[in-house]
């Protein structure tokens, strides 16, 4: 069992740090002192500095040169005196009992490996770099979240952690070595950490309202969000907000505000923050933003930083709803000749959220998607009936539009060319307002489509395997019209 002494290898990268960090925490740039160089552009003779006004790594001739440079390049991770932090080594015969489990993992989030041992009797031994590899026993879960803190599994069948399949994860800033993806990589040991003055890996040192935004792989119904906060730094999160919606989030902070707040922090939270959404919320984008009231650079401890180990977004992807298996169904009563194209393809009427859309649906828009893989260039025709209107895109390229097509109207098609490999067919469809607002009645919504090669082979047809990839908030976004027609700007209707 653990117990043998191991010398902690501490390697001095450098000479002695001369000045006290206490007095130099407030960097000055306008006096005749060594802090003059700090945070002035390199081209003007300046550099980024640490607490001691020593130039940050990689800029030559200073005590911290080795810090945060790749080990293969002669560098190391450093502590705050620029001493290299060496991974905790496993002593001989340490954690070799048959019932013991040995793990080498970064428990404390400093980027250097620690070692953990635990057995079936809940006994624990730990050596962390932040403890100079001194052995500790009977440690709490929070001492090594990567090993001991397990987020709760999804509560119900069918509920999945949507964050793990995020299409993109963006962050307002991050420190050296941290990545936006650490926010939702399924690893409770990888820490997302926003930038601060001593470590501006990417972004701004004055990122006072840092955020992370996740784009889910498709529009989803979200019932719960779980945040695994950074142990020991829970206090940083103040007035934090979680937002969910369909507005895309970029590195411009204003884009976060486009989605609705679903949770606002009102009190200091523990390490695990569970946010139940009841009723569930539909969205494609999820953001977590720290809105700590401290917004000055030199505040000790940088309370405005956003740092957490993992975020879970629990819910279900929004599948399409089949509103009818019968192309000739009312209210659309499709021309029999036109209908045969859909019947032979086995296509179904679909809409986004409710089977009752066949009777009545809100004025709304959705993006329906299906991936189709071909082995060579494949010219195709997409036959489509749309209540009321769809733009057709393949791999984000606009190909044409369909308006209506039911009753006695003839078959309408859009030519699309598929490329070798996987192609994303997107139908951006809206249910328009009723033509005659005075003649109020129900407003059905639905689409039916079949994709065929030039030789007539069916490559895809609308059915329950399509997904709702997004929502269209402004129905005027879909306003392209069939060939030979023009669009009235922002009316959603064709002249
Ligand atoms: Ca460590
Ligand atoms: Ca993580
Ligand atoms: Ca309609």
Automatic annotation (TrEMBL):
The residue range of the signal peptide is 1-31
Q: Does the keyword Calcium apply?
A: no
In this chain the F5/8 type C domain maps to 169-293
Please verify whether the record's keywords include Iron: no
Give the matching InterPro entries: FA58C, Galactose-bd-like_sf
**What's in the keyword line of the UniProt record?**
Signal
Q: Which protein, by its recorded name, is this?
A: F5/8 type C domain-containing protein
Source organism per UniProt: Volvox africanus
